[in-house]
Structures
1.
Amino acid sequence: MSDYLEIYQRFDPPFAAFDRSLLGPEFAQELTVVSTMWFACGYRPGIASYLNFFLLRDFITTHDTAYPPRFRSFQSMAKSFYQTDLFVRDVTDSGKHPTGGISGRKIREELQRIMARHQRIRIPSWMMTYFGFSLLEMVEKQCAPLTDEQRRRHLAYMAKAYRIMGLAFSQRRDLMEDFARRIEAAHAGVAPQVERHARNILLLGEMAGVSSKYDAIMAMLPERTRAAFEPVYARVAPNALRRLGARIAGRVLLPQAIGAPRSAVPVAD
């Protein structure tokens, strides 16, 4: 068994059933921290998380084999990104309309529907746990500096969300970080489809206002996937004219999932 799978077995298991006591006494404060951070972070963490996923060779090969239509074209990738962002904004109560995050029944049900769709195409749950933690790390990079209390509450909230979804997760940051770094060491690499996927996600990022310039992108990636992307970047990065065109087109064509910052309030259903 791989060392990262041994770590994965030490994570807290998915919740067998939901009870409001699982949210815990600090839930309101956790929701406030999460909503505030995710409003502030914009689209950069999401773009970087997609790119990082593409640079994990076995991850993207498994996904594209199981569900080829998702990233087949620029249009399908843009749709995937938008739908994922809508879903994440609902979970973190950082979208256009208040949801109460995981205190809301509809959000918990949507988490479980997302999990069921991934199970139907046989995406390993440990890969989904990695992606969830990678996205958490990207948001924290974008929102830095954070206090220890903010980071603790962020992880506590997201761990509960993923366990409601049906994934193993942990509030022990040291375990999660060890798991992630070992996965990156084992899987970072360039699959045949990476250049096409990377070209599309960087262009989509520009449409969403996320810089595709070298320093902006490389600063977000973990060490191993950053090293894998180094020799690829120059071939896939949009030039200045394409960046400008994408920014203009994005204002007209790209739907926005994020709304104006507001106070997040738990709901009782």
2.
Amino acid sequence: MKTILYRKRQSLKNHRKMVSINEQSDEKECKTHVRKSFAYIVSNVTAEKEIIEAPEIHIKKSFDTKRHQEKFSFRVKGAFYIKEHKAIYKVDFCHTLRIELEWKDKTFSPNKSVTLT
């Protein structure tokens, strides 16, 4: 069985927008919980543009053999500029993906093929 929850929140006063999707599924082999979120904050910029650094990327993966769980987390934070008419805006963003797997059997995810090296 699969359930999906979609939420969209925005604040026009604070120039913020957030979209999140939560998905849970219960299958024969495992239970899966996937969370995705996308956050954006818009701010006005003067004619001078400040230099934007490359996005920050964080990745984590963990295994818990006693509880038969696998966890994966991926986050990207950064910023970009957009131009609308004569105004320039800076958009700060944060995208997050989290996946949790709980295996019902004592073995983790299927073994990789022997031909792969």
3.
Amino acid sequence: MKFIKTSAFLIAILLMQYAMLNAQDKYEYPLNPGMPEWKSLPIEEKNKMLQIPEDKLKSMPTEVLIQAYIDNPFCSLMFAYNTTQDGFNRVSKEFNGLRELMKRNDAATKLIVFYKTMQVDGYDVNWEPSEKGRFTFRFVYIETLLSQPEIINQLNATETKVLINELINKYNKKVELVSEYSIVGLEHCAYAIAHTLNKNGKLMTQEASVDETLQSFLETGHLSKSNMLDQILQKARAFVQN
């Protein structure tokens, strides 16, 4: 019990520390799609300009590195492949900031804190569809990262429950705003939940047909049955309550 209270307290402290970060802590890329040269530069030059200099990369606080990751224009490559996981693998290969982030010992804890600060309804209803899309895509970037074994393996028992509970909360809010997030937004929430549950032995059953369906979802992040999301959320709620 003392361990659980201590872990929850540390997460609360990290939330307060994150709130104290200011705009000066944000990494500014020298190139973004809004600049005139974006269309004229070859992909190799863009990739070079979107890397974080090594001297800054190693000293960058993890929470700032997380923000730099979701701000990187190349994150949109995740949607250019058959599965988001394939796209994530490509971004990891191309972007040194993501590779560094996944090596940080505090990445999991800081990601939970960061994810808690993200507000599903934090967009302006008057934004253009493209701007809303960029906002909702950030949840995909974080939830896909939270699904990776390098992150899940860092979690202790309390952090695992905190993360799954937050994923459930985000999922429920996305359901209310499904016109903005679509089924894709729900899938990626469930994708992170499924991988976390699977790591803790709380996803698969002895039924071969069910296991095959869930295994496919774990590999692709795409639904093959309409009731798959409900099954995963039911298992997640049971895990958090036990």
4.
Amino acid sequence: MNPVRSIWQTGNPITFFHTRVVTEDLLRQVINEGKSIELDISSGANGSLYIGHHKLFYEFEQIPKPKNISVEGAIEILSNSDVFIKFDCKDKNVLARVEKIIKKIGRRDRCMLHAFVPELDFTSCAAGVAVGLQWQQHEYIPLDDMVKLKKGCADIPLQVSCRALSKAQVLKDKLAIVDEIIRSVRKKAEVVNFNLPDNEPPPNIAISKLYNAGLLTEIRVENLIGREIGLPYFGVSDYLERVSAFP
């Protein structure tokens, strides 16, 4: 069973490995430890695929672009493993090729998808949230396009992320934005990332509302700081030692 769906069956959260730096050595370690890996898939000016964000992302964050392994090299290493892989689609031009990659891997029970979707862009009502529009405009992929990709890949789990939300906005008007998120993605996606500033976990009441609608919330486990959620969730960590291992 796909690990995302197993959360519902077991009632236990899992923690996924989030990383922007993907090397051969890291992939070998992930395989040896039976864990997970995120591959940010983007297309370059010549149409080729690479692992990473749009180049403007690195300029906005003022960080160097990592020297990641090639997409082909990563897939060659991962193809014969049981590693849980998240394909984070960074622009529309990668969708058809990501579908081919997932079908080539042949382990759709160990794959999931992710994208920022315009339906969850709350930039128009953002207050005090940094918005790097110069690179973010390249990432949006319509939800229907992601749902089509999801169905083409044997209905693997889909995670969608919000843009420009704050904790105050989430709580405003009796969680009206949470209702809007549910209306937009229910029965289309499995996981929602509120994407709050500094990766702050959203309020428990918002997590509960999503859960009751059949949606899991992504939570950065480093930021829980002893806080109890009380419900299953989709955890994520930048530290491999904190990531769940899968049988």
